[in-house]
Amino acid sequence: MIILYAILGIIALVLLVAAVLPGKYLVEKSTVISRPSAEVYNKIADLHHYRDWNPWAKTDPDAQTTITGEPMHVGHKYYWNGKKVGEGSLTVRSTVPSKAINFDLVFLKPFKSQAIDAWDFTEVDGGTKVVWRNSGAFPFPVARLMGPSITKQLNTQFEDGLRNLKEMCEK
């Protein structure tokens, strides 16, 4: 009986910790790229360039990918299915040419989740300030428990991705 109470206590403690952890997240990183905003925007808004700069996409070079729709327009879509990256898609949701683009990010496997991937491009002295944001929900309880680790990984990927994008654009 004591073992049963101990197990129930541990479960209750884990659920309590999950309940107090954030249910949503926002990751935001920025850099300045020494190129005009239209050039930088085109590298993001045309998903044919996605694998060239995105570190997450590079983790599974054998993943099957399909790109559909007209680049830089609503509905343009990058679909993937791979052993390391799972299955999902990134679809242009809205766009303001050379200024902003928003994507719907959907993961189907290994777990279902949705997020918004948003980009802003602002002309500054010497180039373009690029801001990359990703926001979504951490469902209760497992994703909330994994939230700090997921957020840390996203921060690292965004830093690497912006560095890759900068190198690609400034070549």
UniProtKB/TrEMBL annotation:
* Pfam families to which the protein is assigned, alphabetical: Polyketide_cyc2 (PF10604)
Q: Which InterPro entries match?
A: Polyketide_cyclase/dehydratase (IPR019587), START-like_dom_sf (IPR023393)
- Entry-linked CDD domains: SRPBCC_1 (cd07818)
Q: Which SUPFAM superfamilies match?
A: Bet v1-like
Protein name in UniProt: SRPBCC family protein
Organism of origin is: Lacibacter sediminis
What taxonomic lineage is listed for the species of origin?
A: Bacteria, Pseudomonadati, Bacteroidota, Chitinophagia, Chitinophagales
